[in-house]
């Protein structure tokens, strides 16, 4: 129940401070004084049996003795010692309190005894439905627009548009002190403490509905409940930015890994992939948090990384350029038209390129005109204006000219007025106009690249991938049987992790349509030579041992064996070196496979690892023996779409090598993307997989082939399978909702969940509908389905929104005849239902079929209530709802009928 009853905490009318005190510097004293001093307009009830009055308010011996005029307390602020908190929480529940903030410390942060107290609190809270708790070990919270200071902080948050959420109470205190000095305000300020109940995802969902919140800043050390976080964050970042500082970037090394991937995918890599996929912006320095939040909330996202720099001094321009290139930005290449305009505007000695040096004698007009020309250039995504105070410089007037140019463009404009007293008036003018200004060009460039990062991450929530046909039937029972057979064959059950042989690993890949170079096991030299003769030379020979992960480290790989004699010598050498370097290893012989000779092939490394927070993470990098040396890799959460797979490849430094390069033909990129998607499906389907290496994955102009593979799996997941897809942070496409149906007239219809690739068909459906149909479905009119509108309806977070499309094929062409949409609230308690049937298919029973199927899915999702809004004139739809037991309410508004049904 993510947002349920959180209003009791953030917008209370009655607040009790339990453990209130007048003892100097006590938490109870500070919390009560902050509440009173903050101007809280509601009722305040101090609770402490040792006092009769505190801060001018009557003090009650217990919650039970408070006469709250017939309505319960909304929020209880608990300041009592840790050991007493479980009993206090019970008293809150019995008194009908639904909001609790526990400021007390002494819980799991101090050890096992504290953990036991937390467990007792959790058990107690479950007895009272709807009771929500922030903390324990929390500094508290502030809601400035509601004049609520429910904290023991020394400073007060003023009003602003940023919601701040922190796991560190100490950091909260520092941030408040810094914000007071800088004049930064907040919509909400929350120290979440140990997150016994209310967590980061709950607050993101709640602040998404808050009118005062334009952006969210997160300081996190860990993120429990990863799937809820991803779902909430992706919903929020569709319209507003989230900025994250993740502490603990370089944690202690994890235990020894079974594969290369296990060693290469760290916990921080998983966080990086997850935050990017969530559309959030991760900053590397605390100082960047608020600059970034203000910038992202107030500036248009740039279309790309191409920056134009306008300056009156060469040195700062070079500084900005260096900073831009260091952060993988792009120095915009000005168009010929822009260069001609600048030639006419500027003295002959100007730089004739980007950075645009308007020279030291530039007045305000010259600056402003140069900025306007740069903003109008189609090759420019943003402009940085750097002013260094010279004898002729007009800092204030130039600021006004830049502001005027910025207001005429939707592209971001950032400024750096370098200096002190002379430029201060210009900086203040920028602040008043909402144009971001920075002390140094490097700082401005860093902020611009955060804007670029936000734009890139957000675009992934809206991009329509190309359709890459991946159609294959998977025998999932056979997939899991391979793991079960391996567990049964194990010598002992002492080790929770086991490793599949190369043969079994390749068998799994082959089952998912991932091309493999087939290997054949040989227990002795004679068998190896016989296989090599049958395959045909040249061949590759590898050590066959479940104990040896890195074959090349023990001399266990021999390539390009051109004849029987070479193969015999290789066998002897492999066995000798393996026994010398790993005398403890169980060696089962060798494997033999054909030697793939591909002079135009590129070797990639593809891996996966299941981590403790975000579950399975995929990795793609430059492959071969230099994988760990070159360290060119990228990470993503499964499942992959075509666009996500492509982005992974594009983010590699080796990306240009995949195209035509120095006479080499480009690799089959479509095939490579399809293979990456298939690998992600394998990882999504198999929670047993802990680690996986495919190295190398050979990509050529004609094929993509896995030459070697190794998979480590978890015994426990084999013996006791977890819930489907529980090992993934993002809910995959719900194939379980795909079902063929037949309409009453015999028309074959495929009911299935919508997917991003459906955007063209969805737009075609919309265009085929009459204005009346559009009005009845969306309750407003639009001329055409834009990409932004279509992406909103075709990109679903399947954890909280499911649109079922009715796909019909006519004349060999697929089309959508209708859509039924279910959108659950953040609590997964109630779902809003809407339906659209194309004009050509109305009256064929399609609407009824969609409705019945969506109701069936709602029950499977365990939603408790379905709600729909129908136009009063839509009699056919009203009759359908009525027949299915919906209660129709016509009294809410004249232009809508609300239908509700409890499931």
TrEMBL record:
GO terms for molecular function: ligase activity. Residues 749-903 form the N-acetyltransferase domain. CDD domains: NAT_SF (cd04301). It holds the Pfam family CoA_binding_2. Signal peptide: none annotated. The keyword Nucleotide-binding applies. SMART domains: CoA_binding. InterPro entries: Acyl-CoA_Synth/Transferase, Acyl_CoA_acyltransferase, ATP-grasp, ATP_grasp_subdomain_1, CoA-bd, GNAT_dom, Ligase_CoA_dom, NAD(P)-bd_dom_sf. Residues 506-542 form the ATP-grasp domain. Keywords: ATP-binding, Ligase, Nucleotide-binding. PANTHER family: 3-HYDROXYPROPIONATE--COA LIGASE [ADP-FORMING], ACETATE--COA LIGASE [ADP-FORMING]. This is Bifunctional acetate--CoA ligase family protein/GNAT family N-acetyltransferase. It comes from Novipirellula rosea.
